[in-house]
Amino acid sequence: MGPATLWLRWSWRDLRARWLVVLAIAIVIALGTGTYAAFTGSATWRRVSNDKSFAALNTHDVRLRLSAGTTAPHGALLDVLSGIPSIDKVTAAEERLVQPIQVEVLGAGEDLLVTGEVLGTGRPASGQPIDDVYVSAGHPLTAADTGQPVVVLERNFADYHGLPASGRLRVSGDQAVRYAGHGQWPDNLIVTGEGGTGFFSHSTYAALYTSLATAQRISRSPGRVNDLVLTLRDSDDARSVKRELQEALREGQTAVSASVTTRAGMPSYRLLYRDIENDQKVWNVVAGLILAGAAFAAFNLTGRIVEAQRREIGVGMALGVPRSVLAVRPLLLGGQIALIGVVFGVLMGAAVGAALSDTFKTLLPLPVWDTSFQMSAFARAAALGFLLPMVAVCWPVWRAVRVEPVEAIRVGHLAGRGRGGGPAPWLGRVSLARSSIRRMPLRNVLRTPRRTMLTALGIGAAVTALVAIFGMLDSFASAIDQEKREVAHDAPRRVSVQLLGLQPAGSPQVSRVTAATGVADASTGLSLPATVRAVDRSAGAAHVDVVLQTLSPDSVWTPTVSDGAAPRGRDEILLSRKAAADLGVAPGDHVVVSHPQRVGADQFRTVQSRMRVAGTHPDPVRVPAYADASVASRFGFAGLVNLVQTVPEAGVPPEDVQRAMLASPVVASAQSVTATTDALETALEQFTSILIVAAGVVLLLALLIAFNAASIAVDERARENATMLAYGLPVRSLLAMQTTESAFTGLLGTVLGLAAGFGVLSWMVGSLLAETAPDFGLSPVLSATTVATAFALGVLAVAVAPLFTVRRLRRMDVPSALRVIE
Amino acid sequence: MATGEPSLTVPTAGPLGTRIDLDDVCKSYRVGSTTVTALADVNIHVDETALLVILGPSGSGKTTLLNLVGALDTPTSGTVRIAGRDITGSSQRERQLVRRHTVSFIFQSFNLFPALTALENVQFGADIAGREHAADVAAHVLDQVGLGDRMRHFAHQLSGGEQQRVAIARALATGNPILLADEPTGELDFRTGVQILELLQAQADAGKTVLVVTHNREISRVADRVVELSSGRIVSDGLPRGGRAAIRDLHW
For A419, which of B96, B114, B124 is closest by C-beta distance? Predict the structure, then answer.
């Protein structure tokens, strides 16, 4: 038998002697490795699937979109395109019409009346249409459906409500429409709601895909378009074509107010890709924390094993064995633990990956999903899972082999120093309890500060992950509450009615809307898309997209002014606190507002106006901005309105008013002002089940780490425990002492975890979400429930870990343990 | 004893409190497929307080005997009575109560609790026995063993002899009538070992039964009675060879 075989066999025996604790640590390593492997692998799946899905739908490279509520004659947008120098780079272009709409699903079994949009597009004579539709259920549209009231219903909405593959709808203007199937198109691969600013909107936002002629018919906009999409020979030219289109809009003959974006500017595209990167960062942190917990646990165990071997190491030194050779045995043990953990981790990663694959396909249904095995992700995870515990074992090994042989051989060398050490002596004169037995748990915690801290850090790492994940939802919930309070104050039941295009304020159609059945009070105004930037561009974000609403003295609702004053006159604007902060402006500062300017009937230009920030409002969503009604004349919209705020009569549900609006020919959509926040709350509730799983994993982790520590303590204190039993102390009292001790450690770990968790949460909210959801003003918040859950898992669950050692305590050979020589 | 000082005697054991009876006791273990007999047909009766030494070489069965008397183990056959109570077939709970209220251990390696001070270690004995004013009892006993000035020290701050005196004080603080000492001088030098023996003899003189297990024949010279074991059997039982010696005459 060669020396290598001897070391291997010897370390393998060390491992088998502590197989239960080794198994616990291996599972912790496996959780970290598996989580990392599965989630890193899923990032590749998502990226590849996104690429394939957008490619399969022939997604546009550049898009020109008229300001909301404005349209242009069919052909006008193609005329703009034809004038750009790079027209030869364009392979295809299509004019479309996208209009807001109210949708009622008939025969759905539930009262389903929501806002949405209708997208009408012309199919080319040959080849694939730009931004094609993928039909997941039912039938695609045929040439015969052109101009007919037949549409494809957005898949996420249909799936969420469990709608049949085909069915009947009633849309704005009391029109009957049939949907032939469920489908997805690039705008709605992830549903972002009205204006692309919402989240989790799929439950309350019904998008319809149809022919251009049908969309024009449904939205009563015959011959009109407001959207142009085009594909390029080389998508790298998108930026230059975008610039040329912007130039053409400014200088061309066609008077339109429009924005030009590339594919990357599409909300669904941005979210789908940015989500991957940010999710990956979050999962890296979570997996890193779990691996850190595993490393602390491995450190604890190897520290104990090496201490137990110290006399053997001393004997080895006395026999002249080089220190480097003496280090081989404990290092091999560490390697074996890491290896078992990694093998488990790869298996766990594969299992988690399979579950994730199904989850992603359900949560993010894409036309194409590629979930092939990600070798590189698993290789990286395996390397990390192996290296971290190995690094953790190096310190106790190094510490053990640098002791002088005479010290190492001496009985109780390392143990002796730590036995009464730590801060325990400080409590020697403090009697926290009358009974000596009750004093022991805290003393034990303090006398081995290194081990206590390592265990607490391991538990803290698990709690950190829990707090960060729960805290994200708390922060969202808090922001939603804040938004709900703001939009619902004074008139919580009001219904916001979007009109089809611009309507004369005193027209009979508008009057019929304001005096509709069930409406107690109503006010009209304008809602215009705009972009705001600071005069001093270095102050903050380059620009913020807003929806500017006008306010009049008779408005049924006005925003809360949290700082400054309400806007007055033609030159003032009220921004959200979030928008002001992002722009780096405060009340009294000036901003430049880019907005549509009406230059004639159905003719608009985008112009820039300098306005003074009158104040800020507390809505965490930065999109809403407000100005006095007199701004309408400054922008060329005098006498025109496109928004009606209605307050239902007492006893009339808002849904009745929404339904009444369906019959109006000038109403595009009507929805309760709390519809968005209600949808967000519903979506957050869906995450509860995922959180229970997360809590379960953290519970398991904390329990394993605590069990590891408790198990080590049982080994290490075998003689103390035997002495107490010899004096007649019942096993249950011994367990109670260990449980109390574990609870102290758990408490320390939980406090550390809460602090670190809040730090990670602040980073995620301030860094990651600010990028993914720039319109949503989130602040890191931890709810009382999260804090209570952290304490419940970190303290209570950890406290019960010693109960798993009860069998060993009951079966302890007390006489033998009493004679153990440390 | 001054008025108001806590009493060191606990009348839990009754008139038979110091009595030890072993009748035809056998103890054997299974080691793999082999049966090892640790004790065979052992008969010992202690009916008056004394310093009793169980003498024998390693493997003679003396520690097994101590464990049976200490209610840590049960015999394979025979009867063990402690303080008049038959504990042969008693439950874990009953044996635990015997350990709590009748016998107290003193160990070769002291086995002090490192997290507790000397005073607290001794108080543990009083606490576990359910004595009132446990802290006062502990302070008094510690003073008696000559460590009144070391009460706040932790085990690692005490010498070996001091640690063993704390261990004896812990056993005394229980107030139990039977003291079981397993090689109590095994880790101590001669001078310190003598001090410990003096302490133990004083307890026997004060009315306790003190059972000392040792391989050191010299120690057996100060005993009131010596039971010598060899290969699990009693080879002699009676007064020390050559008569009882004074502790000051010992040499090892």
Answer: B114
